[in-house]
């Protein structure tokens, strides 16, 4: 059922995209004018019309250009294995891969996620994401991928809202050595230190974080034991300051 | 002309791409979307933490608490050198006392948010004291707690932990010192006290401070350091050393420039920087750079301009003579035609 629905959506997206030039006339194609690479049609069938990701297919919108290009190149030369992506990437010219990486990196990401202010040490996924496991030199995911896994710069892709199955597959691939180790082999190094249970937990954490995506840190409830203190509360200049009151 | 070309390309390629896409989609439908994406091994996923993958011994330079950081950690084999283990995170007390400990941890990790009045840059305490001040060889807080009060050459007096932390705000955070009885200082000391639970007061403790590396075989060199930096550091800290942000949040700290630590901070000293870098950088790959590389890249990092030493008096030369008269500091030295510390 899911697959059929996906086909319908994909067909609709592709058909819509294909219908554009005819409607707009041959001289001024608005998509081209906006810098949309023609080859984008090959992506949006699975990754969504705005690169937002669909079902098991990861979001591309707002993902770093350098990262996207490295992945397309790796699929093209078969360093990174995937039966769908390899032939597609191989069919693209290097210039097309560059244009696509730039295009999707510039599409706005729908998510501004944040981590919980007080993750529980017993919540394996949240703890790995926000604190890591430094006894084994495993940094927190957020130390490179940003708060809430929102992505940092060109090389550290967003994690928030990616399908858990996709994240877990990638970590397992790094762990098994079947995905290229990436810049400085950072991810291969991390993945090899993670147990299967930890991989599942952290993957589930980032899939779920999109559902509760917020634009800022959750505010604390003053006086509630264990609750976070609102940032700025200790600054005399801040309005929340209560210094001097009885 | 260009537009027409791209349009005709679009039409020509578009049809092929369209067909290609449809074939790909049909393939997905036929085989089943999930099957095409290599499933992770198909093994059942255990519900509870499985034993952890073994870590090569060479990578476990820091021997922090087995229970130090969260679940699953207790499965690690004991390290060669018994190091002090701070209490596990889930042992943090609750109630009014626990709230102050937690506040200290929050100040430590989100310093700019929780102590903004006293912070003048984009750094947090945890940038240099990794794992929220727990990590051995990364100037852990538990070691600081049992080390003070202590006489320091830098101040020429016995500093308490409170006055030592005030110094962090003034130099490393390029801000200003909170009063010694400020709730921020109290919270940080309380957090340090809790982390030091069971540590032998006044005794030398493995993992304290940053490792003291041997003098480098070759004097620390800017040009060699530049190469080390480009290969190992620029990915995260940027070619310009200014770090990287995600939205309004600094993720990778700036190593130099106006938003980094100032010329009075301990990290501007080559021995501190080299020790920290060799043990802890790149993040998660501590111990992989050679000591020579660590010295060289420390020299490269600290050959860039940063905020003035707040103790500045009269001139750079005078200030160097007074506070930086050692090979460990490049303040006042000329690098690439620029006198470090001068405007």
The biggest sheet of chain A amounts to:
none
Q: What class, by secondary structure content of chain A?
A: mainly alpha
Whole-Å distance between the termini of chain A? Answer: 64 Å
Tell me the CATH architecture of the largest domain in chain A. Orthogonal Bundle
Helicity level of chain B: 40-55%
Q: Compute the gyration radius of chain A: what is it?
A: 21 Å
CATH topology of the domain at 222-339 in chain B: Cytochrome Bc1 Complex, Chain D, domain 2
Q: Please, how many helices of chain B? A: 14
CATH topology of the largest domain in chain A: Cytochrome Bc1 Complex, Chain D, domain 2
Instruction: Indicate the overall shape of chain A.
Output: globular
Strand content of chain A: under 5%
**What average pLDDT do the residues of chain B reach?**
83
What's the count of strands of chain B? 6
Assembly type of the chains comes to: heterodimer
What is the overall pLDDT average of chain A? 79
Q: Strand tally of chain A, please?
A: 0
CATH class of the domain at 222-339 in chain B: Mainly Alpha
- Distinct helical segment count of chain A: 11
Q: Can you write the helix and strand succession of chain B as a string?
A: HHHHHHHEEHHHHEEHHHEE
Unreliable sequence segments of chain B:
1-80
CATH architecture of the domain at 222-339 in chain B: Orthogonal Bundle
């Amino acid at each position: 059922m899911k697959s059929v629905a996906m086909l319908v959506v994909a067909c609709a997206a592709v058909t819509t995209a294909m219908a554009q030039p005819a409607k707009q006339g041959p001289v001024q194609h608005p998509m081209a004018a906006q810098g949309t690479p023609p080859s984008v049609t090959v992506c949006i069938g699975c990754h969504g019309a705005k690169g937002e990701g669909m079902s098991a297919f990861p979001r591309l919108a707002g993902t770093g250009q350098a990262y996207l290009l490295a992945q397309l190149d790796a699929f093209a030369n078969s360093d990174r294995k995937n039966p769908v992506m390899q032939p597609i990437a191989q069919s693209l010219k290097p210039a097309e891969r560059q244009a696509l990486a730039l295009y999707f990196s510039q599409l706005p990401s729908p998510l501004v996620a944040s981590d919980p202010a007080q993750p529980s040490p017993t919540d394996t996924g949240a703890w790995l994401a926000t604190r890591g496991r430094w006894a084994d030199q495993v940094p927190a995911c957020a130390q490179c991928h940003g708060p809430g896994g929102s992505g940092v710069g060109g090389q550290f892709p967003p994690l928030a809202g990616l399908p858990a199955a996709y994240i877990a597959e990638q970590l397992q691939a790094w762990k098994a050595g079947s995905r290229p180790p990436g810049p400085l082999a950072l991810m291969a190094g991390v993945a090899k230190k993670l147990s299967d249970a930890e991989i599942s937990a952290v993957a589930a954490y980032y899939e779920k974080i999109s559902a509760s995506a917020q634009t800022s840190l959750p505010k604390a409830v003053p006086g509630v034991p264990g609750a976070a203190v609102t940032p700025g509360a200790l600054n005399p200049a801040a309005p929340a300051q209560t210094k001097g009151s009885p | 002309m260009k537009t027409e070309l791209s349009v005709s390309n679009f039409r020509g390629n578009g049809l092929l791409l369209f067909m290609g896409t449809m074939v790909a989609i049909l393939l997905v439908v036929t085989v089943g979307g999930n099957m095409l994406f290599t499933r992770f091994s198909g093994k059942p996923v255990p519900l509870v933490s499985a034993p952890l993958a073994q870590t090569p011994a060479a990578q476990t330079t820091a021997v922090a608490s087995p229970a130090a950081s969260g679940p699953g950690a207790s499965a690690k084999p004991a390290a060669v050198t018994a190091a002090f283990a701070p209490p596990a995170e889930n042992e943090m007390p609750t109630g009014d006392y626990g709230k102050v400990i937690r506040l200290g941890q929050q100040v430590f990790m989100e310093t700019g948010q929780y102590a903004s009045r006293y912070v003048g840059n984009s750094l947090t305490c945890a940038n240099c004291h990794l794992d929220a001040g727990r990590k051995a060889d990364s100037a852990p807080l538990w070691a600081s707690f049992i080390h003070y009060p202590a006489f320091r050459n830098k101040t020429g007096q016995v500093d308490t932990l409170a006055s030592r932390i005030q110094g962090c705000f003034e130099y490393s955070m390029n801000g200003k010192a909170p009063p010694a009885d400020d709730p921020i200082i109290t919270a940080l000391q309380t957090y340090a006290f809790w982390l030091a639970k069971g540590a032998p007061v006044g005794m030398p403790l493995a993992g304290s401070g940053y490792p003291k590396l041997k003098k480098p075989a070759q004097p620390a060199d800017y040009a060699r350091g530049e190469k080390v930096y480009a290969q190992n550091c620029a990915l995260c800290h940027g070619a310009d050393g200014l770090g990287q942000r995600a939205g309004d949040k600094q993720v990778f700290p700036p190593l130099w420039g106006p938003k980094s630590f100032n010329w009075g901070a301990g990290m501007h000293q080559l021995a501190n920087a080299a020790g920290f870098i060799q043990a802890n950088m790149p993040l998660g790959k501590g111990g992989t750079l050679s000591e020579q590389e660590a010295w060289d890249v420390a020299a490269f990092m600290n050959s860039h301009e940063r905020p003035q030493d707040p103790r500045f008096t009269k001139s750079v030369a005078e200030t160097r003579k007074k506070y930086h008269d050692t090979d460990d500091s490049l303040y006042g030295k000329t690098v690439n035609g620029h006198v470090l510390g001068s405007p």
